Amino acid sequence: MPFFGNTFSPKKTPPRKSVSLSNLHTLDRSTREIELGLEYGAPVMNIGGQSLKFEEGQWILSETTAESHLMEKELEEVKNHSRRKK
């Protein structure tokens, strides 16, 4: 029975090799786009009924907000109404 230290010292396990589960890195860009339909556009987010689009390093208020759709519909109705009067 040892007084100093522990006699039980297991060997360290060797580090595991990291293996990718995906083979996407082996495909070239054009093949990935064709096979998987990977088409990346500008990031878009909707907050409080407004749509923001990230372009050229800035968040820009997008034209496709719900409010602008309502305004477009109202404008079309006014145009149609004025055409009917003619």
UniProtKB/TrEMBL annotation:
One Pfam family this sequence matches: Chibby
Top-level taxon of origin: Eukaryota
Region span, Disordered: 1-20
Biased composition (Polar residues): 1-10
Ranges in a coiled coil: none
PANTHER family: LEUCINE-RICH PROTEIN (PTHR21533:SF19)
Protein name: Chibby 1, beta catenin antagonist
Originating organism: Salmo trutta
